[in-house]
Amino acid sequence: MILIYIVVAVYIAAVNVYSAMLVRAQRSDEGEDDGAKKGDGKLILAALMGGATGIYVSMFIMRYRLKNLLFMVLMPVLAVLNVYFFFVAFRSGFTFFIIK
Description:
Layout: H1 2-28, H2 40-62, H3 69-92
């Protein structure tokens, strides 16, 4: 049982670090394309996978896309949902994974 807790904690940390690195990579590639915003789908997918907190924090640290209404509303909502899901999962002891 402790192995599941460790795996999920490492997953949460890895997804948030990946999300922060993705924001940094998009910020550095911002000037290279011709005005088209590419990679928004990657950010939203990473947020849905559990990295919304990492994206939201790194957006403020790097001052990236702070005027984009979609990200400024969607990321905190997804972050709250991610934290709630992981809290419930840890609190229940991951009983929804056990097959009887």
